[in-house]
Amino acid sequence: ADAGSSGLVSAVSGMLTKQGVSLWSTRPPRRPCAWLDVSDAVAAATRAVAVAPDYEGPATIVTYTVQHEAGAPLRAAALCDLPDGRRALAVSSDARLAAAMCEQEYCGRSVRLSSGHQFAECVSGRAG
User: Fold this and answer.
1) pLDDT digits (tens, 9 = 90+) for 106-118
2) Residue 125 pLDDT exceeds 60
3) 43: part of which helix (H) or strand (E)?
4) What is the pLDDT of residues 61-72, one digit of tens each?
5) How many CB atoms lie within 10 A of CB 61?
6) Residue 8: CA atoms inside 13 Å, Cβ hemisphere, count?
7) DSSP single-letter state for residue 29
8) Cα dihedral 84, 126, 124, 116 sign
9) Strand ranges (DSSP E) for the chain?
10) Mapping DSSP to helix (H, G, I), strand (E, B) and coil, where does residue 42 land?
11) Which 8-state DSSP code applies to residue 49?
């Protein structure tokens, strides 16, 4: 619809360890395509955060995604900051919460993580 324009496509790997970026256009490039692997440079510039595999207690949602099935929100997965500086990955099978997470911003909200890496509901609004 907009010949000659450019478009940017970005992606993150399933394990959140690599990002991909590509630039597309209907015009040929001025120079040949370049494939750059900047993984080592990014790893050197990125702070590593320890993961707490068996944590239970308060946490703050950093980012999340909602899985849909047959067009409806089904479950959610959240990466959470912990009070001690570590992180934990938690899931919720509460379809109502998953739907709410599609309608409102949940980053920064407090949750309580339980055994089995579960979170059931937000226990407060935005974290302070």
Assistant:
1) 999 999 998 877 7
2) no
3) helix 39-45
4) 999 999 999 999
5) 22
6) 3
7) P
8) negative
9) 6-12, 19-25, 57-69, 72-81, 87-92, 109-114, 118-126
10) helix
11) -
